[in-house]
TrEMBL record:
Annotated signal peptide: 1-32
Record Pfam families: Syndetin_C, Vps54_N
Entry GO terms, CC: cytosol; EARP complex
Domain Vacuolar protein sorting-associated protein 54 N-terminal: 53-338
Identification of the protein by name: VPS50 subunit of EARP/GARPII complex
PANTHER family: SYNDETIN (PTHR13258)
InterPro entries per UniProt: Syndetin_C (IPR019514), VPS50 (IPR040047), VPS54_N (IPR019515)
Residue span, Syndetin C-terminal domain: 712-946
Entry keyword set: Coiled coil, Protein transport, Signal, Transport
GO biological process, one term: endocytic recycling
GO MF term set: SNARE binding
Highest taxon, organism lineage: Eukaryota
Annotated coiled-coil segments of the chain: 209-236
Length: 953
């Protein structure tokens, strides 16, 4: 009823206002009526009238604030013309008249409707007056009812009921009021959510009341705020995992029934944490190195930011980057551990567990699968971030040690990835492989050029190292003696037994509570503490000195032997009980009496060994480039071998001797090296693509003289060069098993071929190199001249040998003495002295046969004299050398005995003994059988000699 009455009053007052408005307007309209009627009565063409109206400027229709007078005055020209002004005034009057007439027509047209509406307003006024009286009476009656009944009775009941309801919620309201403050201080998210849920439950009972409904809405808002704070708390576990904190967060999500949502959010936070962490680490270094407050770096993409890292800050930034990523992965690892332990506890049979709902089982299964799947996803994110960092800088100009540290850090990171999720880290491997191959090609090219420079400046003097020298003593090979995974820094010292036990644990077990696996690169600095060189070329071991101090007066033993002798077999210093006879017994044919049995090597050899160690470090840390590195290692050895052969063994003059100085295997190896590694056209053409991997052939230093007979044609330098190569080959042999373990299975045949066809041929270079010395050390031509003057067609048996034998033996004695002189400067190992003696004896024996083959006439007694001469030579020679058996002894004896063969035996002899030259065989036929066979038989035997193809031996 009240609503109806209010509506009626509103309608009444609105109508009254309209009525008054219309009354005021009516008087004015009546006064103008006559004027309007006059305007309408004036005859005018409607079309002309419309044209006049259309000619009015639009600005007159714009708005009520338009100042027409000002507008017309502004339009006046600078110079006024009365006639034009009058014409323009008349135009305006015509426009005004047309508009006025148009308005008058519209007013008169609407006048009947206006009169009718005015009558309705008058009737409405009457009705409104009646409604006002009715409303006044109704309000008076309602006021009486309110005072007499509602306020006295129903109001009291309603207030009492409301009081009871609000009293029950008072405690919860007070708790909710302090809820946010309580949560911030204690971080008791489960307790806060529990209270809020209880309040919501209580409020839902009375939600039909408006005040309670509003309270329920506020509680829902509070719960959402708690959930937001809970999400922030969850994100904190991604970098620093805390068991108590995470337990509260998980319990809170469980109360909310959002366990699965929490796990989805957690993985999103881990992804975000990885991105934010790496970006902040790299940004910090970039801004630090930039040295200004320019904020342009903060707006860059992470990939672009990585390209601004300087070379000096690259390793520290990489280390910090890996440390930060380790913290994230460790937090994820500990998160998984928490869930595994939590699941075990919940799986323990209890009455509560028996009543576990299917929903909880589903949640646990979902969480487990999500965590397992997240391992790969998180590691993939880590790999991509580190890959962008690795490829953002060109490492080709890095120092070797710095690059090794980079490889070491990445290798350790890959080990983390393998333990984290069993990944082989293909992304990291591929990126670091690209950088490594690029770096290693440049590095190896520079090292080959450096090796050529070393070889061309090498004077082939001994590098004085200790007698117990071993490559394991070099820093470059320290990593081989460490029982560790390949990723541990090569600069670390030998590990202790306790460290070995620790290495058996995974990285996540070692650094679960504290520490970081990437901190070792700062803690363990490489210390150059090598001690492989002998003091002033001699050992400083007090034990060795004490052994020989009792023999200082022994004039038979060289002074150096008294200081430096060690056991040849073991390389160890002898005990004090070593007898003088034992020391003297070493004199006989081993020309190493003046030195210990220390390795023979040069500075260049040591440099090559160090390079091999560095290359192997790279292989050990980064196995994907193992084949490329081993191929480069083989080139180092190839180039060294080729240089030694070029300097000391290449001499076409003696290769036609028939002694087979260079085996087919060695010749094949040398040809292969020359074709694949040696740039024979260096300096002739520009650097073509096909010669980028080749090196110019080295040239022997001008300081090395190989033509002086006094030094046995550079025998000392030849020994140092050849034996250093043999020593290098021995070191390669000792490394074969280690290289084999790092070589990919598909490439192992290359390694086997390298060892079987190249490394094993190093000792074979002794023959051609020492052959040159042996061929020049003894005057074989003089012996031929002396033999040519001997008469062999004697008729009686001689008891005295010829003079040429004594001359030849004297040459050998002189050769032996000169060997001893050389040995005072360079130890001549037994294999070297054996090769030298073998060459000299072989050449002497072949010279004897050649001298016997030059004989024009010879009797049986002459042949007996030949045997006597040769036996005398052998007897004296055996006192000069320990070489047994005497080389080519049968070669001479067989030739002398062939004098006694018959025609048929001679034919068979020619077929079986191709080691003799055609001239030597022809001499046997002409001289030995000439008087016993006819001309036809002789021609037959000579033809047989011509038909035989005799390959050089």
């Amino acid at each position: 009823m009240s609503c109806t009455w209010a509506g009626c009053c509103s309608l009444f007052f609105n109508s009254l206002f309209l009525f008054l408005l219309l009354s005021v307007s009516l008087g004015h309209l009546v006064s103008c009526q006559e004027e309007l009627r006059e305007l309408r009565e004036q005859p005018i063409d409607p079309q002309a009238e419309q044209e006049i109206i259309d000619s009015i400027e639009e600005v007159y229709f714009s708005n009520d604030s338009f100042d027409m007078v000002q507008h017309e005055l502004e339009k006046l020209p600078p110079e006024l013309n009365l006639q034009e002004l009058e014409e323009y005034r008349d135009k305006l009057k015509r426009q005004q008249s047309a508009v006025s007439k148009k308005v008058a027509d519209l007013i008169l047209e609407k006048q009947p409707a206006y009169v009718k509406e005015l009558e309705r307003v008058t009737a409405l006024q009457t009705n409104l007056q009646l409604a006002a009286v009715i409303c006044t009476n109704a309000r008076r009656q309602l006021s009486v009812a309110k005072e007499g009944f509602t306020e006295a009775s129903l109001g009291l009941l309603a207030n009492q009921r409301r009081r009871q309801l609000l009293t029950g919620l008072l405690k919860s309201l007070r708790t909710i009021k302090t809820l946010v403050k309580f949560t911030d201080i204690e971080e008791d998210y489960p307790g806060a959510i529990q209270l809020c849920l209880e309040c919501q439950k209580a409020a839902s009972t009375f939600k039909h009341y408006s005040c309670i409904s509003e309270l329920n809405s506020k509680l829902q808002d509070t719960l959402e705020q708690i959930e937001e704070q809970l999400d922030v708390a969850l994100s904190k576990t991604c970098k620093h995992f805390d068991v108590l904190h995470y337990t509260k967060v998980q319990l809170a999500y469980k109360l909310l029934g959002k366990t699965q949502t929490a796990m989805d959010q957690l993985h999103m936070h881990f992804t975000q944490a990885i991105h934010n962490t790496v970006f902040q680490v790299v940004l910090g270094y970039v801004e630090l190195c930039a040295g200004n407050a320019d904020t342009k770096f903060q707006k860059m993409q992470y990939k672009d930011l990585c390209t601004h890292i300087t070379l000096d800050s690259y390793i520290p930034c990489l280390t910090d980057l890996c440390k930060a990523l380790w913290e994230v992965m460790l937090s994820y690892h500990r998160t998984m551990q928490w869930h595994e332990e939590h699941d075990k506890q919940e799986n323990t049979p209890t009455p509560a567990a028996a009543a576990e709902s299917d929903e909880l089982v589903v949640d646990r299964s979902y969480v487990k699968k999500k965590l397992e799947h997240g391992l790969t996803r998180i590691w993939q994110d880590v790999q991509l971030k580190v890959k962008a960092y690795i490829l953002g800088t060109d490492m080709s100009n890095f120092k070797y040690d710095d690059f090794i540290v980079v490889l070491d850090v990445i290798s350790r990171l890959m080990q983390v990835g393998e333990e984290f999720c069993g990944s082989k880290s293909e992304v990291l491997q591929e990126s670091i492989k690209r950088q490594s191959i690029n770096y290693f090609k440049n590095y190896h090219r520079a090292r080959l050029e450096e090796l050529r420079m070393f070889l061309e400046n090498e004077t082939w003097e001994l590098c004085p190292v200790k007698s117990n020298f071993n490559i394991a003593q070099l820093h470059e090979f320290k990593f081989m003696g460490q029982c560790r995974s390949p990723s541990v820094s090569p600069s670390r010292q030998a590990v202790t037994s306790s460290t070995l036990a620790q290495e058996e644990l995974s990285l996540f077990q070692q650094y679960l509570q504290e520490g970081n696996p990437f901190e070792m690169h700062i803690e363990h600095k490489e210390e150059e503490t090598e001690d492989v060189l002998a003091s002033n070329g001699y050992e400083s071991d007090e034990l060795e000195k004490s052994v020989y101090q009792d023999y200082d007066s022994d004039s038979d033993v060289p002074e150096e032997l008294k200081q430096d002798y060690v056991d040849e077999q073991t390389g160890d210093a002898p005990l004090k009980s070593v007898s003088r006879e034992t020391i003297r017994s070493k004199k006989k044919s081993d020309y190493n009496l003046n030195k210990t049995n220390a390795p023979i090597l040069t500075n260049t050899t040591l440099n090559v060994i160090r390079l091999v160690g560095k290359y192997m470090q790279m292989m050990n840390i980064l196995k994907p480039i193992a084949f490329d590195v081993i191929h480069c290692v083989s080139q180092l050895f190839d180039y060294y071998l080729y240089a030694v052969y070029t300097f000391f063994g290449r001499n076409d003059m003696y290769e036609s001797s028939g002694l087979g100085l260079i085996s087919s295997r060695l010749r094949t190896t040398l040809n292969r090296i020359q074709e694949s590694l040696i740039d024979m056209n260096a300096g002739v053409h520009g650097p073509g693509e096909d010669r980028k991997e080749k090196v110019p052939s080295p040239h022997l230093s001008q300081l090395v003289v190989l033509t002086n007979s006094g030094s046995l044609y550079g025998l000392a330098q030849r020994v140092v060069a050849t034996e250093s190569l043999v020593f290098l080959a021995e070191q390669f042999e000792s490394l074969q098993s280690h290289l084999d373990t790092m070589m990919p299975a598909a490439k192992k045949p290359f390694l086997q071929q390298f060892y079987s066809q190249t490394v094993s041929t190093a000792s074979e270079l002794r023959k051609p190199i020492y052959w040159i010395v042996a061929a020049k050390a003894i005057d074989y031509e003089q012996m031929l001249l002396l033999m040519a003057g001997v008469k062999w067609d004697i008729r009686e048996i001689m008891s005295q040998h010829n003079v040429y034998v004594d001359v030849l033996l004297k040459e050998f004695e002189q050769f032996n003495k000169r060997l001893g002189d050389v040995s005072r400067h360079v130890r001549i190992p037994l294999p070297v002295s054996n090769v030298l003696w073998e060459h000299c004896i072989r050449l002497a024996n072949r010279t004897l046969v050649e001298g016997y083959a030059n004989v024009k006439k010879c009797s049986n007694e002459g042949r007996a004299l030949m045997q006597l001469d040769f036996q005398q030579f052998l007897m004296k020679l055996e006192k000069l050398t320990d070489l047994r058996p005497i080389p080519d002894k049968e070669f001479v004896e067989t030739y002398i005995k062939a004098y006694y063969l018959t025609e048929n035996d001679m034919e068979q002899f020619i077929k079986n003994h191709r080691e003799y030259s055609m001239k030597q065989l022809a001499n046997l036929v002409n001289v030995c059988l000439g008087s016993h066979i006819n001309k036809k038989a002789r021609q037959k035997l000579l033809a047989a000699i011509d038909d035989i193809d005799r390959p050089k031996r």
